[in-house]
Amino acid sequence: MEYMTTASTGEQPRWLTDEEQSVWRAYLHATTLLEDHLDRQLQRDAGMPHIYYGLLVQLSQAPRRQMRMTELAKDAKITRSRLSHAVARLEKGGWVRREDCPSDKRGQNAVLTEEGYEMLRRSAPGHVSAVRQAMFDRLSPEQVRTLGEIMQVMAAGLQPEGSNADLPWLR
After folding, report:
1. DSSP letter string, 10-42
2. What per-residue confidence (pLDDT) applies to 98?
3. Is 10 left (phi over 0), alpha (psi -120 to 50) or beta?
4. Alpha helices, DSSP H, located in the chain
């Protein structure tokens, strides 16, 4: 692959070492399996995908169980379009409703309904058990700390400051 160059600079790419390639593939393998595991558990126990459950959790922790749609997209790290679709599905289930934002007539709030809160309350124990079984029960306390530090460094590097940042919630 020596002949390949990066399109933007014309420079030779910095190929991954064998160790980096192995770590990258292990990361992809594990995260894909983990997301599938959590999606299947939540579909079985709550009738919703993991991303929807995460939205309900965020709303449950917000003041008055409501958030501006733009803030919810930012916290969920998803596009506004994907959030709008997800909230529409949650509305059909009676778990969320949209309300106009009183301080900004163009904005909307997503509000967790009592039915949504009850669904979250019922499904949380099974979800926490699935997370614990799939992740934390397999790691030592030191590995948990290290993984947390690594994920924080990665997330910080992927969220540039500024209005020209290409982040999902800005699309």
Report:
1. -PPP-PPPHHHHHHHHHHHHHHHHHHHHHHHHH
2. 96
3. left
4. 18-46, 50-61, 69-76, 80-92, 114-134, 141-157
Strand 66-68, strand 96-101: pairing: unpaired
Q: What is the pLDDT of residue 166?
A: 74
Chain CA centroid to CA 33, Å: 15
Q: Is the torsion defined by CA of 60, 146, 168, 160 positive or negative?
A: positive
Q: What local confidence, expressed as pLDDT, does residue 8 receive?
A: 64
Q: Take residue 170 and report the two structure tokens written for it.
A: 């800005």
Residues with Cβ < 8 Å from 60, sequence gap 6 or more? 112, 117, 120
- Rounded to an integer, what distance in angstroms lies between the CA atom of residue 47 and that of residue 25? 31
List of the chain residues with pLDDT < 50: 1
Residue 112 has a CB neighbour count (10 Å cut-off) of 25
Return the structure tokens found at 63: 């003041």
